[in-house]
Design a protein that fits this description.
CATH architecture of the largest domain: 3-Layer(aba) Sandwich
Helix content: 25-40%
Strand order of the largest sheet: 4-3-5-12-6
Shape: globular
CATH topology of the largest domain: D-Maltodextrin-Binding Protein, domain 2
């Protein structure tokens, strides 16, 4: 039986050193199923065995965890708090025991998880998944949409995933490798008669906006730059998705900011036009960020190399002015 071993000097006040790892597995199943019977079936254990584990957990936490209401069980307030934490803890434990001194991608069977915006998925997803299919056919790539809360707690979240795709200027003090550069364009409706082939700074101040990630700690660098230039966007709509921007701009007089590498993919049939920014928008540098504990992990080192190689295959960035003359039929 595997046991968790910690420093007694640091954890003398915690009842952890004597707990076996199976209790964490049992706790995760019990809180997820809210039923001893279903949890036992999920773990392929006998009901008496799991009931014994529940008893140990109740003594450890000094809490009932599951209390009977009629013919079913409900989670106690403490159990509700523990439910998400147990999943995170199990993921971290699994990553520890998945570690190997060497990594052989041709035969390795594991999953890599990256947190990303839909923009970065659209840019990196195809070349990275193609490379991984060629070099490591038994691996699985999981691309998950990040949230502002996860970015605010990046150092903690990165303990449980392999990396975070995010541009410079949002987080710091974590290891990173730069992947590619991008620039910014403006998005307006194709039938917006207030805007011709060029936008002006005055129009950016006057027109309503659709913004992505508009918050104190969730923002686009170009959107923040506008504020430093004295333009306070009149934000009407906020979406946590770049791919959704055309749908909240089309048919309105709104304006939005979008990355150049994504802009050309958003115009077909979407009823929008892409125009140059009327200000010198600072370029975007997209990077992979990870937790320091993965710095020398062989599998993680390989993943980082694959990301860099995949991004080298991206088309050269088009910095010529956008042709805004095309109009939908």
């Amino acid at each position: 039986m595997m046991r968790i071993s910690f420093s007694y000097a640091k954890l003398a006040s915690m009842k952890i050193a004597s707990l076996d790892l199976n209790l964490l597995v049992a706790l995760d199943a019990l809180l997820g199923e809210a039923s001893v019977t279903r949890a036992a079936q999920r773990l392929r254990l006998s009901q008496p065995a799991l009931s014994a584990s529940l008893g140990k957990l109740r003594r450890h936490f000094d809490d009932e965890l599951l209390h009977r209401v009629g013919n079913s069980y409900e989670l106690t307030p403490l159990a509700v708090q523990l439910r998400q934490r147990t999943g995170v803890a199990l993921d971290a434990v699994q990553r520890v025991f998945d570690s190997q001194p060497e990594f052989e991608p041709e035969t390795a069977q594991r999953e890599f998880t990256l947190l990303s915006s839909d923009y970065a998925m659209a840019v990196v997803g195809q070349p990275l998944s193609r490379l991984m299919h060629e070099r490591a056919p038994h691996l699985r790539l999981r691309l998950q949409h990040h949230s502002p809360n996860q970015i605010d707690h990046a150092a903690e979240i990165l303990r449980t995933v392999d990396g975070l795709l995010l541009p410079h200027g949002v987080i710091s003090d974590l290891p990173r490798t730069d992947l590619y550069q991008d620039t910014w364009r403006c998005l307006v409706a194709a039938d917006n008669e207030q805007v011709g082939e060029q936008l002006t700074m005055a129009q950016l101040a006057e027109l309503p906006w659709a913004m992505s990630y508009h918050g104190p700690t969730a923002f686009t660098p170009a959107g923040r730059q506008l504020q430093t230039l004295g333009v306070e966007p009149k934000v009407q709509v906020v979406v946590e998705s770049f791919l959704a921007l055309p749908f909240v701009v089309a048919g309105t007089d709104r304006v939005a900011l979008v990355q150049s590498r994504l802009a050309s993919r958003l115009t077909a049939g979407a009823g929008v036009r892409v125009l140059p920014c009327p200000f010198d928008a600072a370029p975007l540098i997209e990077a992979l960020w990870w937790h320091p504990m993965n710095q020398f992990d062989a599998a993680h080192v390989w993943l980082r190399k694959m990301l860099v190689e995949a991004c080298r295959s991206l088309p050269a960035l088009d910095i010529t002015p956008v042709d805004s003359a095309a109009q939908p039929n």
